[in-house]
Write a structure and sequence with these properties.
The protein is globular. The chain has twelve helices and four strands; from the N terminus they run H-H-H-H-H-H-H-H-E-H-E-H-E-E-H-H. The protein has one domain. The strands form two sheets. Strands 1-2 form a two-stranded antiparallel ribbon. With 301 residues, the protein is mainly alpha-helical.
Length: 301
Amino acid sequence: MQIREWLPFLGMPLMLLSVQMIAIILVLPMQAAGLVAFEDPESVANPLFFIGILLAFTLVLLLLIRVGGRRFLAVFIGIAIFMTFVYIFGALLGLALGATDAAAVGTLIAAGAATTLLYLYPEWYVIDILGVLLSAGITSIFGISLAILPVIVLLVLLAVYDAISVYRTKHMITLAEGVIETKSPIMVVVPKRADYSFRREGLKIQEGEERGAFLMGLGDLIMPSILVVSSHVFVDAPAVLWVLSAPTLGAMVGSLAGLAVLLYFVNSGKPQAGLPPLNAGAILGFLVGAALAGSFGWWPF
């Protein structure tokens, strides 16, 4: 392949790395704001609850697509995006301004502006920038809410679910197609050419034409990155690069290696389940980093 054909593949690793770094930076603001998803981060029941919520959310989206409620689908996703931005900007402004009226008003304005921009001007770079911020915020919340063992259980279960939903039931493909038609910004877009416009073209193609961009769901950015944040928060290991310990760096490098495997198969042009290679890479990388650091205090046995 020529260099220009490989350039789009650099965008996804950069976005994954950006999500992980921003999520780590958001750890202190999220903790200060008390934005934890689970009271007991050590409980292995947390992943089951997470999966249950995910299945319920997926069922609602599929029902809206089946009954032709794509407008309601867009509204439903928009409300979820707005509330997530409220948490993110609320934590940041709360840390900067304290629990003041100015922080509350600023949070609502910033969250409203970000959500409005996504829907009124859904160009690929707008979707990518705000999608990375959105993913980092969600990653940080769950990363500080789940200790290592529950995260590993969650990533294994999600990898199995993703594989089944893409290759067997194929309902994840149906869901992705429905979301794409509404141009709801719950994915990142990596153009294949300089003149590509998501607002103008979306991902629809005429017969015989090549699709103008690659898509990657926000879940593929978020899930392996949860282990990165969790290892930063819950593993007692010395920093070896900036504030990053060997287990955290291992999870980061492993997730990037998993992404490389995924992109190899994505180049075939067929839909691929992203979480099996991404989550496996993050877990294996974390275990290697933990072994190098001698940090196994998170292991209960």
